[in-house]
Amino acid sequence: MPRIPPTRPSTCTRLHEEELPVVLAVEPDQLSADPALLDAHELLVTPYRSEELAARIARARRRVNGVESGDVVRVGALELNLATYQVSIDGRPVDFAYMEYELLKFLGHDRGRQPMTTPTLTRGRSRYDGFRATIKAVGTGPRGSRALSFGEARQAMVELLAGEVSDVQAGAFLVAMRIKGETPEELAGLAQGLRDAAPALRPATGRPLVACAGAYDGTSEGPHLGLAAAVLAAAAGAGIVTHCGDALGPKFGVTPAEVLDALRGNARPSPEESVRMLERSGVAVVHAGEALPGWRRLAALRDQVGVRGPVHSAEKLVDWLGARRFVIGHSHAPYAERIWGALGLLGAERAVAVRGIEGTDVLRPGRPSAADAGGRLELPEQLGLQAGGEPAAPATAALTRAIAAGDEDGGAAHAAILSAGLRLAVAGLAGGAVEGMAMVRAAVADGRATATLDALAG
Predict the structure, then answer these.
(1) Residues 91 and 134 in one domain
(2) Are residues 348 and 325 in the same domain?
(3) What does the DSSP assignment read for 97-151?
(4) CA separation (Å) from 6 to 36, 43, 197?
(5) Most buried residue, 24, 214, 245, 385, by CB count within 10 Å?
(6) Is residue 251 situated within a structural domain?
(7) DSSP strand pairing (120-123 vs 126-129)
(8) Are 173 and 222 in a shared domain?
(9) Is residue 7's pLDDT more than 50?
(10) Domain for residue 385, yes or no?
């Protein structure tokens, strides 16, 4: 190894710029005389043994290129733990956003090696690829788990619907996501995976479409007024797409499809029949079990898991029949931001999250709560008013007819009219829910609401 003359101190600098490891062998009298020594990664003082030289070269390479031992990648003072997704500098933990971490992980690998990506994760001698890598990403625990990207979440849903993962893997993913909680980006990706599988049908109608859904597990404590609100809004000029599925846990409550069945309508229409329903009445009921391949198999797995998971939220965000405006029900306050955040990422023109009755898309009559990207909406309150009634489908069907005919003026009717007014505002036909309510009452008074209900039931 040649001695570097004192007159050329820039040699080490140039080697540093080329990201090459620098090991200098020096005479004892050079230790304090040559400033170029400060730029070397390792120093050897002559005479030296070959074993020491090999060790110094190895240390210099580590400092420049980094090394991986099991789950740990080190680059100088920087250390990345691939198992826990933790980063430290000089032993001190540092917080990084997900994309910052991924960039560090990419840059931290030796030149010429393939960086690790989500589909393939290596831990020691064990290799995680495919859906196992997805489970590992979200199921490593509070400190180790990370959010999926839009593309990762989308692919996960595609594989779940297609049955390309085992029941054990599907259950593990659903529970892990339940524990971690979904980000708006994850929710958007999962919803896009569902949208990819949905038929691309478009009705021949000039009505502004609003897709509406609440929790697919329905209502068990009172009537499901989602279909009533849809009929009232359609009678005033909007196109309403109400979607649901078969009875689903954890509540196994009454769904809009069951109410339509009690009205002698088609509770399980094909996608084409849903289009015809909308064209003749202004309301379409879309049944996910009939329209979405793989939904029923996945629903059965979700029932086995027994708790709500990411699909319970994502399925409400499908843009059935080309709708770009949404009214989505939820139970828990934190989900409002996730819902309209996800729909914003998916390109929605307008999205309103409703903290509705039993998680439905129907506003509570006493203290209604709804929000969009601009914040909480101002809605009229009638403190103490409740939407009472029997939850059974036949009783709800009779109540729906009474509301459409103007023969019901209690809490249930107010909830349905208020919710219909909000749909008209989201459709762009009213300046707000209060103006929409006036339009709905006019449609009830002149018989348009009953005519719409009759056309829907066929």
Answers:
(1) no
(2) yes
(3) -HHHHHHHHHHTSPTTSPPPBTTEEEETTEEEETHHHHHHHHSS-TTT--PPPHH
(4) 7, 15, 70
(5) 214
(6) yes
(7) antiparallel
(8) no
(9) no
(10) yes
Buried b (16+ CB within 10 A) or exposed e, 2-29: eebeeeeeeebeebeeeeebbbbbbeee
Whether residue 120 lies inside any domain: the answer is: no
Count up the domains in the chain and report the number: 4
In angstroms, the CA 109 to CA 426 distance is 50
CA distance 454 to 458: 6
The pTM score is 0.73
pLDDT in the model for residue 271: 96
CATH number of the domain bearing residue 177: 1.20.970.10
Side by side, which strands form the sheet with 209-213?
283-287, 239-244, 209-213, 325-329, 350-354, 370-372, 375-376
Task: For the beta carbon of residue 261, count every other beta carbon within 10 angstroms.
Answer: 18
pLDDT 10s digits, 9-18:
456 655 555 5
Residue 326 pLDDT level (bands cut at 50, 70, 90): very high
Given 78, 107, 136, the domain boundary residue is 107
Closest CA to 232 of 161, 281, 296, 170: 281
Structural domain harbouring 406? 203-291+298-457
**pLDDT tens for residues 224-252?**
999 999 999 999 999 999 999 998 888 89
Q: What is the mean pLDDT of the chain?
A: 85
pLDDT at 434 over 70: yes
Please indicate, yes or no, whether residues 316 and 346 belong to a single structural domain of this protein. yes
Q: Which two tokens stand for residue 192?
A: 């896009």
Residues facing 375 on adjacent strands: 372
The per-residue pLDDT for 203 is 94
Residue 450 lies in a domain: yes
Residue 359 to residue 376: CA distance in whole angstroms: 17
